[in-house]
Amino acid sequence: MSAWRRVLRLALTLATVCCGLSLAPAALANNLEKTEIALDLDFVNPVAKSSVDAGGGGALRVGQQLDLVALSLTGEFGLGYHSFGGAAEPRDYTAFAGGRLAIGKILEPGVFVHVGASRLVGNFVSTWAPMMDLGLSLDLTVFPLVDIGLHGTYVHRFPTTEGSVFRYMIVGPHVALMF
Q: Which residue in 16, 107, 151, 155 has a CA-CA distance of 20 to 30 Å to 97?
């Protein structure tokens, strides 16, 4: 089994566990769940693609946060869009599911993983492919219902028969509303 298959299997397992635990029934969670809606603004930079330039984009995430004393576990689903510069003008549309694990209450460092599907379009043949991302975040709870923060993400779009691997890094701010 290749290294990427092992990484994808681990990411899929972690995403499934996070989604399953955070979407647990309210009786199990004892009313410790909150609905989260988040918006990410992203600066994107391709990894090892000299013909593709940096760009921008964002993502909308919706999920359930399970608040456990010093830990927060969030299962989430989302949609993303990232546009790159360069002659091919690639744009990546993503749909993903996964989870986040954060430590703390006011200042919350965290990790996250998502798996999903990616549609890469531009001045070339458009293709669908599986994708995954891994990242780090740092959130600050401004009010009990509002978190702001920064995130850094590595995105890996797996190869298809029509295309090649496409990887990029994301950095940017995000804001999340909890209710």
A: 107
